[in-house]
Design a protein that fits this description.
About 45% of the residues lie in helices and about 20% in strands. It is α/β, with parallel strands linked by helices. It is globular and about 50 Å long. The relative contact order is 0.14. It binds S-adenosylmethionine. InterPro entries: COMT-like, COMT_C, SAM-dependent_MTases_sf. One of its GO terms (biological process) is methylation.
Length: about 230
């Protein structure tokens, strides 16, 4: 699906997709600003950031933050063009946000960030692709910054273990699970499934915190554990 969206001639549908994702996840864009202790971080890379609305919202509420939005070349080019034509107020909301093209399968070029956010990206991918995406960020996580390792923040609508929950949110999750399968061979994953992908990418990756939203949205804080 993303190869199709990235084709030059598909700019209108690419823009529609970006707007649809931003709208569909608007509650989580607000939730994430509250559930993660952002005061610990200064520079954050948002991998597969899409429209970049998360970065704009976070930097509005956390003045310590600067965000680098990374996405595919045409997605980034569209957004830069769109914002250059946007009203001054909208442009101002992106003052602390930069855009740069970066293929998430390629080794992460930013090694100086305090955190790497990857929100609603893994669910668009099968297990094999997820492992490639996670592997690409490992060298940046392992880079030691002032004695502290950076964190990977994996943000997803997390699937409860099968049949442990009958809530309305879970029904919605099952629909989204099928939508991910049909559109891009992806899936909604449980914490255990996400953890298995992390370990497959690198056994040194370990979840050190889980920040929970009020429904199924969770942010897994992942660190690169130093050898003893
Ligand atoms: C479901 S959207 C999530 C957007 C954003 N993270 C959010 O939470 O609103 C998935 C994003 O992954 C991006 N993407 C897909 N393939 C990519 C690739 N190879 N490299 C970088 N980004 C990619 C898409 O362009 C899209 O913006």
């Amino acid at each position: 699906m993303f190869k199709y969206l990235e084709l030059d001639e598909n700019e209108p549908v690419r823009t529609r997709y970006g707007r649809a994702v931003a709208q569909h996840t608007i509650n989580e864009t607000d939730e994430i600003k509250d559930i993660v202790p952002w005061d610990k971080f200064k520079l954050v890379v948002d991998i597969g950031a899409g429209n970049g609305q998360v970065g704009a919202h976070l930097t509005k509420h956390h003045k310590n933050l600067h965000i680098i939005n990374q996405d595919m070349e045409n997605v980034i080019a569209d957004r830069i063009k769109e914002l250059s034509l946007a009203p001054a107020e909208e442009q101002a909301s992106f003052r602390e946000v930069d855009f740069e093209p970066q293929d998430y399968y390629a080794p992460q070029t930013r090694t100086d960030a305090d955190a790497y956010l990857i929100r609603f990206v893994l669910h668009n991918n099968n297990d094999e692709n997820c492992v490639k995406i996670l592997k690409a960020v490992v060298p940046a996580l392992a880079a030691n910054k002032n004695g502290e390792h950076a964190r990977l923040l994996v943000a997803e609508r997390v699937m409860p273990e099968w049949d442990t929950d009958k809530s309305a949110q879970l029904k919605q999750q099952r629909i989204e699970d099928m939508a991910m399968l049909i559109s891009c061979s992806g899936k909604q994953r449980s914490v255990a499934e996400l953890e298995a992908l992390l370990k497959k990418a690198d056994p040194a990756l370990e979840i050190d915190q889980i920040y929970c939203g009020k429904d199924v949205f969770q942010v897994l804080s992942v660190r690169y554990a130093q050898a003893p």
